[in-house]
Amino acid sequence: MCIIMTSINDLNKPYIFNSTSIIRDNLPWTPEHIAVLLKKKKLPFRLGKRIIDSGIQFEKDCHHIQATVEDFIQWNNNNDQILVDNNEFSNYSNKDYFAYADYMHFRELFADDDSFLKLIDWSQIGLRRNSIDSTLWIGSQGAYTPCHFDTYGINFVLQVFGRKRWLLFSPKTAISKMQTRIPYEESSVYANINFVSTNRQIFESIKDVDTIEIILKPGDVLFIPKHWWHFVYSLDKTTISLNTWLEQPDDSVERTKEMISRYLISSIMTAHMYEPTQWLNHNEILTDNFTNLTILSNLLQQQQQQERDENDIHDPAEPPIKRCCVENVQIMPAHHIGQISLEEKPFCQTMHYQQCKNDESSKEEKQLLQEPDEFDFLKNIVRAVTSSDTIDFIYKKLIEQSSMHAKP
């Protein structure tokens, strides 16, 4: 079957492409084979609690270690036996913690060996992408990514080993009303809801929200449209995934909006003398206001120049999206690649929801009912000023004012 995604509307709907062979390797990519490929290279693993009483466990709330895949395999297969002293996982029980190494770029993992950069080829699904444009994800059972959407680009995910559960929500659903930029992470906008909770009461406000639930299996490639919310959970003992992002025509606008959000959050943190660990996700840096304003000013100037260039070449009445010629507007997978359309259903009908219990006495539910303190009130202010509609308004006003000053 040949799938041609010629309409921009096709890029607003999730798909699964199956029967793919993205990896160009004679051996299957098991955890053991990954360990051989990476040799003794240490990877950044985060360890999170499998069960949490309250709140959401973001990356900043996890433990972080550097360990080899061999260490990970030994720990993940361990049954209450004492690990060797030099195993970085030795302080964490695999019954209490999950481990996840994510966002690992191939160009960094195999920087000293170009031959490995030819192992990944996305051309089967019509993408001119290879290992250089790909990232690797390795996790244990229970590893998850909190519900979020990516501000830049569109996303293709290949499931290599084990299975993962995906929950997908359109930007038009009520999930968007639950967005939070605390913790702040560039290009990731989180939803303020704990999807690993086993208490149905937590999901009362979203039980009727249209949801796409997927069990992604080895060989499946999932296409995630721009700004679609997604929660990802590892179902099997070990899961391995690859992904690649494709830039979109309006990513330059999104980068400017991200800089506005960073400036607002950094300013409030500085004014209240907050430490980076309080409101920033792991590996994010608190940049000073002068730096933020300088970058924001440059981005606005670039955006204005880009719009002027487009208007000089094209009919101003033509929609901006049609002025752009990008490789991912048309995607033509190989003839043997199948496409699965995905159907939405109310969240309360998903397997994820059905596995939860009604527990009105949950500590988590009680926490939600508590009166907010000063810290929570300040968080609410940040959520208000960094919400998508607020940032959109600020961006629009900045562009208008800059255009007025630019006129002779």
TrEMBL record:
<protein>
    <recommendedName>
        <fullName>JmjC domain-containing protein</fullName>
    </recommendedName>
</protein>
<dbReference type="InterPro" id="IPR041667">
    <property type="entry name" value="Cupin_8"/>
</dbReference>
<keyword id="KW-0963">Cytoplasm</keyword>
<feature type="domain" description="JmjC">
    <location>
        <begin position="96"/>
        <end position="263"/>
    </location>
</feature>
<dbReference type="Pfam" id="PF13621">
    <property type="entry name" value="Cupin_8"/>
</dbReference>
<dbReference type="InterPro" id="IPR003347">
    <property type="entry name" value="JmjC_dom"/>
</dbReference>
<comment type="function">
    <text>May play a role in cellular stress response.</text>
</comment>
<dbReference type="GO" id="GO:0005737">
    <property type="term" value="C:cytoplasm"/>
</dbReference>
